[in-house]
Amino acid sequence: MNDPVTTLDARFSAPGAEPTSWQATQEVLENAQITWLTTVRADGRPHVTPLVAVWLDGALHFATGPEEQKAVNLAANPNVVLTAGRDTWDEGVDVVVEGPAYRVTDSATLERLAAAWRTKWDGQWAYEVGDGVFRNDVGGPALVFAVDPTKVLAFTKGTYAQTRHAP
């Protein structure tokens, strides 16, 4: 998502609150050490798990093994919610990203994403690219997914503002 329409929801914001800028919202996504992914199981039950994600080219990206629950869930239903922020009630910004997840298999894009993972976590997440997946020395292949947001909500705490960013 680039240059979204930004609106403040006054129903859930303090009097006089200002909307959270798109730049401030992106900074939360770019800097989050942990992001929580919510998928839906085939029987309709939710599945929530923490993971490391990278914001690149207006989309949030994550990786998972092909047999992991989140990959199984995405095969049946691509709609996801990703959340990032702080575990405080009175400061910071929490961000919710909604949209469908889709596989990224293009080698050039995967190479850029692998570089972003290495940079963000000082080399602790080192992926190699091959056959449309990430590979490393820890486990088997990892499928890479992107979420182009259909809606992003930013919840500013302390000043209490709920902001919506949408294409």
Describe this structure in words.
- It is a single chain.
- This protein has helices at residues 22-31, 69-76, 107-120; strands spanning 5-8, 35-40, 46-51, 53-56, 59-64, 79-84, 93-103, 128-130, 133-135, 143-147, 151-156, 161-166.
- With 167 residues, the chain is of the alpha+beta class.
- It has a single domain, classed as Roll (Pnp Oxidase, Chain A), CATH 2.30.110.
- Strands 1, 2, 3, 4, 5, 6, 7, 10, 11 and 12 form a ten-stranded antiparallel beta sheet that branches.
- A hairpin with a 4-residue loop joins strand 11 and strand 12 (161-166).
- The protein is globular and about 50 Å long.
- The relative contact order is 0.25.
- The mean pLDDT is 95.
Structural class: alpha+beta
Q: Sheet with the most strands?
A: 10 strands, antiparallel
CATH superfamily: Electron Transport, Fmn-binding Protein, Chain A
CATH class: Mainly Beta
Cα shape: globular
Task: Give the number of DSSP strands.
Answer: 12
CATH architecture: Roll
Please write the string of helix (H) and strand (E) elements: EHEEEEHEEHEEEEE
Please tell me the total number of domains. 1
CATH fold node name: Pnp Oxidase, Chain A
Per DSSP, the total helix count is: 3
Q: Tell me the span between the first and last alpha carbons.
A: 7 Å
Q: Whole-number radius of gyration?
A: 16 Å
Low-confidence stretches: none
Protein name: General stress protein 26
Keywords: Oxidoreductase
Organism: Promicromonospora iranensis
Pfam families: PNPOx_N
